């Protein structure tokens, strides 16, 4: 896009420009239970991109701090966190509809009311729906590592995207990343260390032990039994 200042400008000139996305679309079928949960719970817990900028007071009915999770998968840990912290609000973004359905099923069973979901691309949600310096915490756990070197450019944790995240977090707020790929952890650490206005909370200036606020998943526990590592990065916005 070197000759264009924006994707919109390129489009007006009849040129296609590949834009950054937070995901790669994978097809998946909804189970009957997931579909039913969406039908029952989406009117209460669903958020839509075309509704524009969020008013958290209106969405949640309170001024509690907001945690924003990108790519929550099937949503079990997100629901667990919401249930454990009723005085905190949670917004999850997941592009895969079966994951959204599974998360809504779990939320319904847990009886949580401090959780809202988007079934959209997080890049667009952040751009269109989240005000600057409005989030207390942003978390991204176990994003696709794109482990082949030629695919590293597809990783969501890139300098431009992290700068966008920081812009949305309040001063003193938190950016929490986790991965079970050491190479990706090293990449994340390099990107965050080189992002203005971020400060590493690690006493060794690298990784932190898993915070109690992040539940350990069955997948993670199985990996640990096999000797696989997990790396948590927790940075503060200053």
TrEMBL record:
The keyword tRNA processing applies. S-adenosyl-L-methionine binds at residues 69, 94, 121, 144. SUPFAM superfamilies: S-adenosyl-L-methionine-dependent methyltransferases. It is an enzyme of class 2 (transferase). Residues 196-206 have a biased composition (Polar residues). GO terms for cellular component: tRNA methyltransferase complex. Keywords: Methyltransferase, S-adenosyl-L-methionine, Transferase, tRNA processing. Residues 196-224 are annotated as: Disordered. Pfam families: Methyltransf_4 (PF02390). Pathway: tRNA modification; N(7)-methylguanine-tRNA biosynthesis. Its EC number is 2.1.1.33. Signal peptide: none annotated. PANTHER family: 3-DEOXY-D-MANNO-OCTULOSONIC-ACID TRANSFERASE/TRNA GUANINE-N 7 - -METHYLTRANSFERASE (PTHR23417), PENTACOTRIPEPTIDE-REPEAT REGION OF PRORP DOMAIN-CONTAINING PROTEIN (PTHR23417:SF14). Catalyzes the formation of N(7)-methylguanine at position 46 (m7G46) in tRNA. HAMAP family: tRNA_methyltr_TrmB (MF_01057). Belongs to the class I-like SAM-binding methyltransferase superfamily. TrmB family. This is tRNA (guanine-N(7)-)-methyltransferase.
């Amino acid at each position: 896009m070197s000759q264009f200042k924006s994707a919109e400008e390129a489009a007006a000139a009849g040129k296609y420009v590949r834009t950054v996305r937070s995901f790669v679309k994978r097809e998946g079928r909804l189970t009957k239970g997931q579909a039913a949960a969406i039908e029952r719970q989406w009117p209460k817990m669903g958020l839509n991109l075309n509704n524009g900028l969020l008013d958290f007071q209106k969405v949640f009915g309170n001024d509690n701090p907001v945690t924003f999770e990108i790519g929550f998968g099937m949503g079990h840990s997100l629901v667990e966190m919401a249930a454990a912290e009723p005085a905190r609000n949670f917004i999850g973004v997941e592009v895969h509809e079966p994951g959204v359905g599974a998360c809504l099923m779990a939320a319904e069973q847990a009886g949580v009311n401090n959780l809202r979901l988007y079934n959209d691309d997080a890049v667009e949600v952040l751009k269109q729906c989240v005000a600057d310096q409005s989030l207390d915490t942003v978390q991204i756990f176990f994003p696709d590592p794109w482990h082949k070197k030629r695919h590293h450019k597809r990783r969501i944790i890139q300098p431009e995207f992290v700068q966008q995240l920081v812009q949305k977090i309040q001063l003193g707020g938190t950016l929490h990343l986790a991965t079970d790929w050491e190479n990706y952890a090293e990449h994340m650490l390099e990107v965050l260390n080189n992002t203005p206005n971020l400060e590493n909370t690690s006493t060794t200036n690298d990784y932190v032990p898993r915070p109690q606020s992040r539940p350990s998943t069955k997948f993670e526990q199985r990996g640990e039994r096999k000797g696989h590592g997990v790396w948590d990065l927790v940075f503060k916005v200053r």
